[in-house]
Amino acid sequence: MAKHDFEVEALEEILEFWRRGESVGVATVVATRGSAPRQAGAAMIVSPDGRVTGSVSGGCVEAAVYDEAMGVISGGAPVLARYGFAADEFSIGLTCGGELEVFIERIDRAGFPNLDVVQAAVRAGEPVAVATVVDHPQAQQRGRRLVVTPRSVVADAGLGSDLLDISVREDALALLAAGHSAKLIYGSGGEPVGEDVGVFVRTYVPPPRLVLFGAVDFSAALCDAGRLLGYQVTVCDARSVFASADRFRTASEVVVDWPHRYLAAEIDAGRIDERTVVVVLTHDPKFDVPVLKVALAAELAFVGAMGSRTTHDDRVVRLRNAGVGDDALDRLHSPIGLDLRATTPPETAVSILAEVIAERRGGTGRPLRDGHGSIHEVSQAVIGAVGCPE
Fold first, then answer.
1. 147 with 126, same domain?
2. Which CATH number covers residue 301?
3. Cα(74)–Cα(241) distance, rounded to whole angstroms?
4. Domain that holds residue 87
5. Looking at the structure, do residues 236 and 320 belong to the same domain, yes or no?
6. Distance (Å, whole) CA 199 – CA 135
7. What would the pLDDT profile of 210-236 be if each residue is shown by its tens digit?
8. Same structural domain, 149 and 52
9. Cα–Cα distance between 364 and 120 in angstroms, integer?
C-alpha cells in the first residue's frame, strides 16, 4: 500500500474514535537523524483498549512508545520523546545508529475539534496541513494546532502567538506545495530564526501523478509499479484500440486523446504540478515530439522518453527543430532508466522508476556497498527553504 493510502487510513481510523467521543493515543515521528528506520510522518495509533496499528520504528522502540501513549490516553500531557542508539539488547533505542523524535499525544474532540475539517479536505482531494506545537518552553503550549489549506487557516486558540501563527502558515503552504511533512524550528515569540519552539507540519496532499503516454506493455508494468510507489497513474494514447481500461486495470484512468493535447489541457486545468512525472513510451515522432515539447515547457518533477540512443539522437534533432532549447533538452531523461540490464517490461519499469526516485531524492544510483555514511540521509533542500528544520 502506498504512503498516501496509509496516511489516509490512519486519519480515518483516528476519526472513528473521535466521532464516538473517545480518546486515542497517536505517536508521530516528527524528526529523524542518521539511519533512522522510519521517516517524519510515520505514526502509531493506540486505541483506548490498547490495540495498536502502525509503527514508528519497525519494532525498536515500540514498547516504550506504547507505554507513553497509554499514559497520554489516561490524561497525561503530550510527550516529545527522543530515541537514539541502543548499545545493547536491554537498552531502549535504535539498533541502526540513527535517532528519532516521536511526539505522543491524545486526540479527541476536546483537543482537536477541527479534525473533521482535515478529513473533508482529504476526501475532496484538496491539500491540507496540520501544524502542531511539539516542543515549547511552556509545556502547556504543546499540542496546540493550526489547520492550514491554500485558502484558509482554522485554529481554536492559535499556536501561542500571532507571529508564530503567521510564520507557520507561510511555511505550511510551502510544504504543501512541495508535498513534504517536516518539523520546523522558531524563536520563542514565533520568529523564523530561533531554537525554542518546534512545530511539526504534517501535510496531506493528493498523490503525485505519473502520466504515461503510449498504451504499450511497458505502460502496464509502470502502472503496477507506479501505484506501489503512491502515484496516481494515467495512461494516454490517441489509439483507442490500444488505450482500453481492460489492458491497464491498475491505472487510475485511461484516456484516448492526442498526448500533447491532453497534457496541455491538464496543465491549463491546474491538474499537473511540480511533483508530476511524465514518461513517453510511444516511439513515434508524431506523438513524442509534440507532447515532449509541452512537457519540457512545464515545471514538472521528471520528463523521460523511451528509445534507443539512435532514437534519442533523432528525437533531439526534431525537438530542436520544433523550437525546444538546450536548457529544456537538458531536463529530458532519455534514454530513460538506470542501467540495470533490464529486459522484461516489469524490469524496465523498475529501471525507469529507480531513475525517477534517484532524481527526486538526489541519489546516485550506485550500489550502497560502494558508498559511505548514512544510507537513510534525507535531503533538506526543500525543507530548508521554508524554515529551520532541526
1. yes
2. 3.40.50.720
3. 61
4. 6-109
5. yes
6. 7
7. 999 999 999 999 999 999 998 999 999
8. no
9. 39
